[in-house]
TrEMBL record:
Family named by the database record: Belongs to the glucose-6-phosphate dehydrogenase family.
Glycoprotein as UniProt keyword: no
Domain Glucose-6-phosphate dehydrogenase NAD-binding intervals: 10-189
Entry superkingdom: Bacteria
Pathway(s) this gene product operates in, as recorded in its UniProt entry: Carbohydrate degradation; pentose phosphate pathway; D-ribulose 5-phosphate from D-glucose 6-phosphate (oxidative stage): step 1/3
GO MF assignments: glucose-6-phosphate dehydrogenase activity; NADP binding
Keywords for this protein: Carbohydrate metabolism, Glucose metabolism, NADP, Oxidoreductase
Name this polypeptide is given: Glucose-6-phosphate 1-dehydrogenase
First-tier enzyme category under EC: oxidoreductase
Functional summary from the UniProt entry: Catalyzes the oxidation of glucose 6-phosphate to 6-phosphogluconolactone.
Length: 501
């Protein structure tokens, strides 16, 4: 691991959910791993006035909440010395002048600064304008980088206008558009799996692969995030960003190298070759649903419309599925199915690749059921695993077959598990863009989903529902091309390899 240069990390929205649940705990883990630069300041910004001591007390509360069984006190003593607090109350333009004086003149603050926007999307341009107007984004004394959370825009046009407003004060190398999915170790494993093994490359194309499924499902409902989610919905929240990134990693050509631009060039190429979905084809390519009340872990849970902050006639989708085709030599004719949902039966993210059947079914006479295809499955969470299903002969006198799973669970006991944010924070401090999105990636992803968003926005009087705790609305099966294709829910062989409801 490289030694990082001293830097100031300023978190806007330090008191918000993202910062409390992800960023501050991730920084603490980096402290534990002893990889933060000796001279590094974490400057938290929030709307309320607070003394430094009060803020350090809150940080301790955040760490205690994260590690209820106890945390490493010695590490915390060191961690707390890094924390400072700066209030930026709404309408107080002076607070940015004070910030400028602090960062420019106080020798305790390293001059390389990373500004992390852990705020509502509408605040991104406002804060960046304020920083730019006082000259804090000029790279005279040190580097100035900005990390921008998703969603980057609301649709193609708004993403383009957000981009324009950033370019008033920043150039591209200063911008780090984060998609925390790309930072997950298991997602990076997709690349390792594909490009560090020779075994797969000959099979990784339309000649052998029948279709690909990419799923992210969650038990949780919308929780306290209705004000954001009502304006977003599942397609924007998960598919336009995280699942499109997974698709790009599965489908891209081998890059020239793992350097940021080479990697991002290949991802963009895939996104560009996704066949545009015309508005009249939206119903054949996309399906949405909303959770109704149901049962999760044996407990009754309310439907989306009963959640606090949700309009009683809302047609915001909490489930979205879509089918896309990648019109290039490798993938022509292979459907990629993407789906995501809240309040689903399980928490599970996985990439499932189904292979074609052998050209001749020599074993037909020995079976009473349709042939079972091979699957390769990459579990992303909660099980990070790699499984491959193949057919073998059942021991005995008769020639009968069964499916077995080659299970290459690759985590060894004692190996550290990091959340995505640890690595991404280090990369931003180091200036490595490989795991951050370039604007053209964001733009092309919006192009894919924009027609669907437009049609759904017009259809406001009806949405399919599904019971909380189920696998989503039944009608979603109509996306599949053939009758022998189904959503695959489980990574395990369970009687049948393809599961119906
Ligand atoms: C976020 C979405 O980007 O990703 C959430 O806004 C979603 O709605 C979350 O729950 C899923 O991320 P993870 O890392 O918990 O799978």
């Amino acid at each position: 691991m490289k030694t990082l240069a001293p830097c100031t990390l300023m978190i806007f929205g330090a008191n918000g959910n993202l910062s409390r649940l992800k960023l501050i705990p991730a920084l603490f883990r980096l402290e534990q791993a002893n990889v933060l630069p000796e001279k590094m300041v974490i400057l938290s910004a929030g709307l309320e006035e607070r003394s430094r001591d009060e803020w350090v007390g809150e940080v301790e509360g955040i760490i205690k909440a994260k590690y209820p069984k106890g945390y490493d006190k010695a590490t915390f003593e060191k961690f707390k010395t890094r924390h400072q607090y700066h209030a930026t109350p709404i309408g107080d333009a002076e607070s940015y002048n004070r910030l400028k004086v602090l960062l420019d003149e106080d020798a305790n603050y390293p001059t390389d600064v990373v500004f992390y926007m852990a705020v509502r999307p509408s605040e991104f341009p406002v804060i960046i304008d304020a920083l730019g107007n006082v000259g804090l984004l000029k790279q005279t004394a040190g580097t100035r980088r900005v990390v921008i959370e998703k969603p980057f825009g609301y649709d193609l046009l708004s993403a383009q206008s957000l981009q324009k407003s950033l370019y008033k004060h920043l150039n591209e190398p200063q911008i780090f558009r984060i998609d925390h999915y790309v930072g997950k170790g298991t997602v990076q494993n997709v690349m390792v799996f594909r490009f560090a093994n020779m075994l797969l490359e000959p099979l990784w194309n339309r000649h052998y692969i029948d279709h690909v499924q990419i799923t992210h499902s969650e038990n949780l409902g919308v929780g306290g995030r209705a004000d954001y989610y009502e304006g977003s919905g599942a397609l924007r929240d998960m598919i336009q960003s995280h699942l499109m990134q997974l698709l790009a990693l599965v489908a891209m050509e081998p890059p020239v190298s793992l350097a940021a631009e080479h990697l991002r060039d290949e991802k963009v190429k895939v996104l560009k070759t996704i066949r545009p979905i015309s508005q009249s084809a939206v119903h054949a390519h996309a399906f949405r649903g909303q959770y109704a009340s149901g049962t999760i872990d044996g407990k009754p849970v309310p439907g989306y419309l009963e959640e606090t902050g949700v309009a009683s006639d809302s047609t915001t989708e909490t489930y979205a599925a879509m089918k896309v085709f990648i019109d290039n030599w490798r993938w022509s004719g292979v459907p990629f199915y993407l789906r995501t949902g809240k309040r689903m039966a399980e928490n599970a993210s996985a990439i499932m690749i189904r292979f074609k059947n052998p050209p001749q079914d020599l074993l037909r006479a020995t079976r009473h059921e349709p042939p079972r295809p091979n699957w390769i499955m990459l579990g992303i969470q909660p099980d990070d695993c790699l499984k491959m299903e193949i057919q073998v002969k059942i021991p005995g006198l008769e020639l009968q077959t069964r499916t077995i799973s080659l299970d290459a669970t690759y985590r060894k006991e004692g190996e550290d598990e990091y959340d995505a944010y640890e690595g991404l924070l280090l990369d931003a401090m180091e200036g490595d863009h490989s795991l951050f999105l370039r604007f053209d990636e964001v733009e092309w992803s919006w192009r894919v989903v924009d027609p669907i968003l437009k049609v759904w926005a017009m259809e406001r009087d009806f949405i399919n529902t599904y019971s909380a705790g189920s696998w989503g609305p039944r009608g979603t099966y109509r996306l599949f091309d053939r009758e022998d294709q189904f959503w695959r829910h489980s990574l395990n062989v369970k009687g049948g390899d393809l599961e119906a409801y």
